[in-house]
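Late entry, written up from scratch paper. The run itself happened at the end of the previous shift, but nothing got recorded in the book at the time, so transcribing now.
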Amino acid sequence: MNRLESSFGRVLATVAASTLVAMLAYSGPLGNAVTLNTALRAGPASATWILASMSVGLAAALVTAGVVADRIGHRRVFLAGAAVFVAANLACAVIATAPLFVAARIVAGIGAAGMIATGLGLVAAVSEHDGHRARTAVWWSSSMGAGIALGPILTGALDLVEAWRVFYLVLAAAGAALWVSARRIPAQPPHNPDRAQSVLGFVLLTAALSAAVAALVEVRARDAGLAIALAVAAVVLTAALVASQRYGSARLVDSVLFRRRRFLSATVAGLGTGIGIISAMSYSGTFVVHGLGLSTLQAGGLLAVWAGTSAVAALGFSRLAGVVSGRVHLVGGLAGVALGLLLMSGMSDGAPPARLIPGFVVAGIASGLLNTGLAREAIASVPAGDAAMGSGVNNTARYVGSALGITIAGVLAAGAPDAIAGWNRIALAAAVASLVCAAGAGLLTLRAGAPAIGPGTPTAPSPASSQPRRG
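Output as recorded:
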């Protein structure tokens, strides 16, 4: 094994493990939401925030973490994120009230954002070889699926022995191990050390995303007054952000990237992933417990059918990663997810839980294809120096879409006569959203060889043309 291959393998192992741990943290409460609500004495609004809190932290911090990482170094931001993740989960393990638990989960999301936004950048800094890039996409997407599958199962199993707090101790220990592993990765020079940082832009972006996601959560919590106030604040903050980027001397993100069709296509697909399959699966645990009478462990096992199939499917698609275009991954994945969601709809009174399994399997296979494409396109659609930023934008779209989708799911469920009717509406709405985003992602890359909108936009290096680079 040559030096490049050895270094790449070590970095990929750390990045894949960090994705697995972050998704464990994200999905764990989906499996024991009822237990958490009881233990923390959470009311309806707090219960909503417990499920959405980590999404808020992720959505608010991913872009900023990616941009800062490209400026000061990916490893430094990864280490900082891992340290924050450890501290936040230790807090979750001892906190006894819902508001403090929600705050700790938001901070955990910020820490996870530091790891997720920089992971693909760490690998890209070691090698841009086309084979390595394809392998990275496969293992990243497989780790994501495995983490989402295992989280609810682990929390459901711990519920059997009334040890839900142990889950957060496990996460803290895993985060510490990742910090140690990342310390052994050779430091690479920053890609853009001389790029001026827009401190005001960072503050406004974080505040705007936080307010927007919080407004969505409060809509689901049925606090109309607070939701409107947060939405107005988000609009004002967004306007201020646009003005700062238009007239200020420093930029958060090079505006030319948003004229790249390939970059926009990946961003739309990320949004579709969140608003479609992730939001539906986030609600599925509550549905099967209250609507079908399953235990939290059984609900986690059923959810694992989708997420586990996704992880295995991503490995199976590894042979296609180098020959199938990003467009096929994204559009085909979203369309397949829509088909799976349609198969999950149409539930009737007395239907067994097994009625959902065919849809879970189809959606899982499609999710494996979709996640593999997202991992590849997030870094292949931007210059090498902006890899972490590209990953940050893509994942931000995913978690903003998730927050929006979960809000829509909550509204649809609340307006339905029973849990089964609510689930049918949610599955159908998520399928429609997936198809709309599939159409959008496809249209953006309809013209072959046209990655940008408008003249003079530089093209991103394609995976096939990338050459190995020494780490």
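The radius of gyration is 21 Å.
(Scratch paper discarded after transcription.)
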